[in-house]
Amino acid sequence: MSDKALVLLSGGLDSSTCLYWAKNKGYDVYALTLNYYDRWIKEIESARHLSKRANVTELIEVEAPFIKEAFNVLGYEGEYVKDKDIRWPFYIPAKNLMFYSVAAHYAEYMKARWIVGGHNKQDVQFYTDATTEFIDTLNKLLKDGCMLCNGSHFEITSPLVELDRLGVIKLALDLKVPLELTWSCHVKTQKHCGNCYGCKSRKEAFNSLGIKDPVEYEN
Questions:
Q1: Exposure class string for 31-64: b at 16+ Cβ within 10 A, else e
Q2: 4, 65, 80, 183: which has the fewest Cβ within 10 Å?
Q3: Residue 163 — pLDDT band, cuts 50, 70, 90?
């Protein structure tokens, strides 16, 4: 059985924790990051820095300019923003179907055992394509379509799915993730803005734990 793991790495708290989780498991770790439309360079740099620090076997960068977040197409406001939830502008239709399909393409050639995704408990409560049921269905489809697997197919695993933001940070600290290299902000700034959903949820979690967040904030 292959010991290779391909981690979907955005540069945020969840995916970086998954990266170090895979390293801690002793897997031969590869990372995959998709540079979709208008993706901020700070997030891309975080994925690069984290990969280098973790000494991954390879960071695979895929250019995907056709993939757009909802605000790029529909704006920040409109009927699609339900219940005033500020996560809607950053929704990407069929995101996980596309991202995992790209990962599966690479995983099949490299004969990987695992594709690792950083879906936490709060993600699953909002994004319907991050649920355990969705991932289970996708695993079945990918297994059925893997013609080079020869009975030893790869599988998507979500090690953070039972953890909330506090739980993820606790695990990250245990795994010695270099949190100062992560990027959670949704705004194009040189420092974390401190006001967007990503920043607020991150700040609240660190404050609840009584720990200083090692990244810099503008506010």
A1: bbbbbbeebeebbbebbbbbbeebebeebbbeee
A2: 65
A3: very high
